[in-house]
Amino acid sequence: MVLFLASCGWTPVYYSNSSDKSVQTEKIDILPIPEETGRFLKSKLEDLLNPEKEDVKKEYTLQIILKERIDSDQGILGDNTATRATMRLDAQIILRKNGKELLNTNTFAVSSYNILMLPYPTVTTEDTTRHRLLEALADQIATRVTVYFKKHQDNQ
Question: For the residues 140-155, what does the mean pLDDT come to?
């Protein structure tokens, strides 16, 4: 199987070879994303797209438009108290080079959590869920951008 994959030109997306500079995600400048959730997402993306923290001239800009929605009308008890909520984070991904839009796509992550009787544990659970979803979004965004560069490396 390995020989077959090697013969067809397949290479892993995250394959790193010092002589292979076809995927240059370190050249992406990630624009600020509002609020604490945006700062967390931007930090995760910087770690994924430029893990070596290379200081190179930025040729691309990546804009992320982040939206959060919480549906807390789930698991209703007899006294109309909700016991479950679903959080959804939507991200619009816009990659540009010299003002020209190269990629414009959307992705999302969804998770549920319990609404507890005490407020503090519920807030903590909500924050934990939000951070897990932001990490999942960061992985999805980094993968989409990397795949874009792999697919269009001849046009770069």
Answer: 85
Exposed e or buried b per residue across 38-56, where buried means at least 16 C-beta atoms within 10 angstroms of its C-beta: bebbbebbbebbbeeeeee
Place of tokens 């991200």: 91
> Could you tell me if 86 and 129 are in contact, meaning their C-beta atoms sit under 8 angstroms apart?
no
For helices 35-49 and 119-151, what crossing angle results, to 10°? 40
Instruction: Return the domain boundaries, the chain.
Output: 24-155
CA separation for the pair 35, 87 (Å, rounded): 17
Do the Cβ atoms of 114 and 83 come closer than 8 Å?
Answer: yes
pTM for this entry:
0.80
Closest CA to 60 of 32, 94, 90, 92: 94
For residues 131-143, give the mean pLDDT: 96
- Name the residue type at position 1: M
Architecture of domain 24-155: 2-Layer Sandwich (3.30)
Query: pLDDT, tens digit, for every residue of 51-91?
Result: 888 888 999 999 999 999 998 877 777 676 678 889 999 99
